[in-house]
Structures are given as structure tokens and as C-alpha cells.
Amino acid sequence: MNKLPIAKRAQILAMLTEGASMRSVSRLADVSINTVSKLLVEAGKFCAGYHDANVRNVKAKRVQVDEIWSFTAAKNKNVGAMKNPVAGAGDTWTWTAIEADTKIIISHFVGGRDGECAKWFIDDMASRIANRIQLTSDGHKAYLEAVEGAFGADVDYAMLNKIYGASPESAKGRYSPADCIGIKKDRIEGDPDMKHVSTSYAERANLTMRMHNRRFTRLTNAFSKKFENHAHMVAIYAVWYNFLRIHKTLRVTPAMAAGLSETVMDWANIVEAMDADAPAQKRGPYKKTAAEISN
Fold first, then answer.
1. C-alpha span between 101 and 86 (Å, rounded)
2. Of the residues 29, 107, 172, 223, which has the fewest C-beta atoms closer than 10 A?
3. b/e string for 222-246 if b means 16 or more Cβ within 10 A?
4. pLDDT category of residue 172 using cuts at 50, 70 and 90
5. What's the whole-model pTM score?
6. Which residue in 91, 137, 87, 85 sits closest to 112, CA to CA?
7. At 74, phi and psi to the nearest 5?
């Protein structure tokens, strides 16, 4: 089976995590869009497994969780009018958990914004942490039951609720959130240090995710057309963010800061690991053609 050279595949993955769309990547790398799509799926599956295997026993102190909105195929209000409905169409939420000191993405989950998805996300996050943590979330009520089920009393948990003012008349009907006029910090479980109750790092990490993934860019046609591909791209991004990208303030990668890696990796390392992990493709038995048989 023909494969692109390692350097070419590394180039494609690097461009995808620098905010380029799939079609622009196909033009810049001089490959077909099908090639980019196939590599996205292969790398997404590998990166999900890589994160699952390597982001374990994280020694965390202060963890912040948040959700970032996007949509697949169409926004919720337009799903009913789709001519060709696709599975997973509508609002798509990406849940992330980041450690405040090392900036590592401990867990990520793509789904809805309901209680079941909150439970999946918090359970996964809890399974990757080695010690008691201080946890901060926004005021989304789905976190309450999810955190209770995952940690019980073994967590110092607080919610940060933002208080918004009334939207001005000029902003109504447009994407322009109301001004935040205050915050309210609520202790939910344990004894959280209230001066560290914040979601600022999680929100800043979500900004980085939006800037480095073209499918998150608002008011374009680069949104995800398939739910699975959205999840694949988030998995690729998480590996890039944790293991490849040097954090400006840390001067090392988040994985190095968390003690999960000793060196800065690059996309060539990931592609080589993908090849080593892929099952051997054996050629089937040779079959004679009709012409050869008649001869």
C-alpha cells in the first residue's frame, strides 16, 4: 500500500493544528482532499489512544474545566431543515480539563452539554488524576452530579458563576455576549482555596483551541461536516498541545512540565509511532487473470 512520506504527513498534521482548513492543506501540500481526510481519521484514532495511554497518574493541584461550543453540519435551529441529515448534526460541545500550573489538558470529550456527557467527561478526568485536587467549573448545573459521582467527598470543588448585565439594543440578535459585571464563587465540596477559584486558564486554553482549529472558526463554512471528524481533530490537537507545542510561559511542553515526557516531540515522531502501531498489511494470494489461465 502506497503511503505518503513521513515528512509530508507531518507537514499536513502541522498545518491542521495551525488553523488551516482541510482544503487549504490539500492545496498547500499538493495532495488530494481525500488524502487529508484519510490522514485525519488515522491520526485522530492514534492520538486518542496516545492520549489515553500517556496522560495517566497526573499529579495535579488545581484543575479547571470548561466547554467550548461549535456545531456539526448545521446549527441546532437549522437541523430540521437539512436536505441530507447527518448523524451528530447540531451543536457540538468540546469539554476540556486543564491543570493550572502545568497547563496540561488532562481530559477532553466531544458530545452534547447534558448531564450524561458531563458524567463521561468528569469520570474520565478523575481516572487520570493521582491525588486530591481543587476543581473549578463554571455554573453549569450538570457538573454538580457528575463531580459528586466521580469524586464523592475526595475533592475541593467550587463553582464560579459570572453575572452578566443587560445586552444593549444594538447587540441584540448578534453574536455579542453581554458585559460581565461581576462573579460569584460558591463552595460546593471540601475546602477549596477561594483565591484560586477561577476558570481563566481553561477559557484561555479554549481560545487557543479555537484559533488552532479552523473548524471552530465562527462565520465561515469550515465547520465540521462529520461529528467523528470533529472528535478526531480534537484528539490530534490535544496531543499537539500537550506533547509538541512549547508553552510560552513554561518554556517546555505541558507534558514535560507535568512529568509525563522528557523531550519535545514533533509530528515526525508521531507519524513514526503511527506506522509502528499500525497492523502489518499483508498482500493477499496471487490470483491469475482469465487471460493467464487460458494460456
1. 40
2. 172
3. bbbebbbbbbbbbbbbbbbbbbbbe
4. low
5. 0.89
6. 91
7. -160, 155
Which triple of cell numbers denotes residue 28? 498547500
pLDDT tens for 27-79 read 999 999 999 999 999 999 999 999 999 999 999 999 999 999 999 999 999 99
Q: Most distant CA pair in the chain: distance in Å?
A: 87
List all residues 6 or more positions away from 192 whose beta carbon is below 8 Å from its beta carbon: 134, 135, 136, 156, 157, 158
Q: Could you tell me which residues are beta bridge partners of residue 107?
A: 97
Answer whether 19's CB lies under 8 Å from 206's CB: no
Q: What values do phi and psi take at 281, rounded to 5?
A: -95, 105
Phi-psi group of 19: left, alpha or beta (phi > 0 → left; psi -120 to 50 → alpha; rest → beta): left
